[in-house]
Amino acid sequence: ISTPLYVSINLSEDFLSNVSFDKNQLFINLLDNLTALDSCIEGYYITLSRSSDCEYITNKNTILAIFELCYVLGIDLGKKIILNSIDTLSLICMAVGASSFASGYFNKAKRTFINDYNSDVGGGGALPRFYSQTLLNNFYPYREFKNIYSLGIISSQSSDNTVLSDSLFKSFDSDSISPEWRESKSNIKTACNHRFLSLKNQANEIFNSHNKIDFVSKLLLNAEIYLTYINQKNNNTFSKYLNHITIWKECFNDFIKFHNL
After folding, report:
1. Which pLDDT tens digit goes with each residue over 215-255?
2. Can you say whether the dihedral through the CA atoms of 73, 78, 83, 89 is positive or negative?
3. What is the pTM of this model?
4. Nearest-angstrom CA–CA distance, 110 and 117
């Protein structure tokens, strides 16, 4: 009985961030060595160690290098690509070769960053955050997302609303508070399960789409347009949620042009 062989690739952001992937000789050598293993490998498990505590990956060289790994190994070689510690950027990677990804609710599950494991840093119970498929972001349900909902951009009929968030949307309409979404410490069970379900639904949509490139391009464009509007209506208080979307869109467009996809 033959067992599928997967190779684990553990990358450091420091290794990718300073030079573009097409001029990074170490990265080029890595790809050459990995492609030489073609005949005996079923797939690759790729993990990225982060160099900062930013919630999202925003270094363009790093993002483009991850895209290139997915594209060469996943599209050119037809291997299964499983991403870890890259969080929602993995959704974008699914358009250029990634097969699946791991994520989580807490920082420790979403990224690999040494300070997340330092007991002297942070602490206390987490608050619930609502994950929006449309906006590719996590928001505090009442202090932030209720404001967005009031603008009419996202409705209770949208893909953002799952069976686990229906009580939240209803509470907006009735001007009440849903107990399972109340912004209280450690009240995260519903928010956590909603996030997992939303990411699963979104990943399946991308994976099963007829044209993954077009699907993700529209996803990023719409998120940027909506967040720009939301930001304008709220005196730029939502700017932190827009930055990574704009960078991801620019990188995705650059990558498409680079490979003439």
Report:
1. 999 999 999 999 999 999 988 888 888 899 999 999 999 99
2. positive
3. 0.91
4. 13
